[in-house]
Please model this.
Amino acid sequence: MLTARAAWGQSGDINGDGCVDLQDVAVVQRGMTGPQCTPGDAFMEMVLVPGGGAGPEYDFLIGKYEVTNEQFAAFLNDAQADGGQTLRGSAIRIGTNKDVRTITGVLIAQPYYLAYNPEAPVGQRFRAELGYEKKPVFDVAWIASAKFCNWLTVHSGLSEDDACYVEVDDVVGWRPRVISREEWRDRDLNDFERHRLVTECRGYRLPMDAVGMEGAITVDGNPFDEWYKAAAYDPDAPNYERPSTGEVTVKPNALARHWRFGFGRDELTAFNAHCGLGRVGLDGGFSPVGWFDGSNWMYEPIGTTEMSVSHFGLFDVSGNAPEWVQDRMSYSPCFATRGGAYWSGYIGGTSGCEATARLMVCNDVWLGWTGLRVVRVP
Model:
């Protein structure tokens, strides 16, 4: 992968604002992927998914990795230090047992591998447990994921007006800012609202999935299906039908070639994804994000991992932690996760980690073992 500086020359600052940042990404040639920085801050590493071909016609940036325990701890520390004075810490309260709640007291996050020290100074009380810093955060509800996105928006130098989610004191009204509270309780975003989300909301948010209650996951592409395009599409994927044990057959057409799994392959092994086929990482459970890079050591079976990224440079879009996406079903309150999970191979075979795999969770504040990945349209 090329860094922005290496690709653009000595300065890399295309728009002259003093930073090689997301705004510069939008004006360089399509197809370049690699580490980017937000204004004055390299907190979240993003890759560019160019518009055109199958899926969205617009460029968007998506997290190269799932959000880690280390990153979520930084969010909670900053939110607690802010105390609700700004969007950095608004609409949530943090208890003494590392729990995150709405103002009315509903639990929306209790990250399993974060430690909390109430005796430390405010702003330094959370930390990732030793050895778990780079593993994906989990036990985070959809609402807490939306809050993380709003926080990341202002943390990265954008304004509060760029935030994509409306925050309220209770559970019911948390929603994308392009839809009313009443309508959000009854349905998912329509295409007009999705277009507004893309064109009017510059901040970070969850990737769209754009699959309604009645519809199947399309392999032809969807104008707002950001997650699937980033995970599976590849112009160099095979151009013939292959069998699949998941929801759809891998059946390319002229516009949409794609892989069965989100790491540029049709076959799942213990060396290319963490999906119930071998122990990886430091101790089992979730593996560190980006573990399957061709260099990290596998405990069982003996050997090293394979380089396993999607065409656009994403790690862990098959297996590891399930990821919240923007979408919900047309009745309340059900939200979607994508990407399977490390335990999927044990309970559902390899289909649970296919790029088409999708799970609906019908609870606003369900924690489970769910994590997240972020997206932004520059």
User: Anything to note?
Assistant: Residues 1-11, 13-17, 20-41, 212-217 have pLDDT under 50 and may be disordered. Residues 25 and 90 are 30 Å apart (CA to CA). DSSP finds eight helices and 16 strands in the chain.
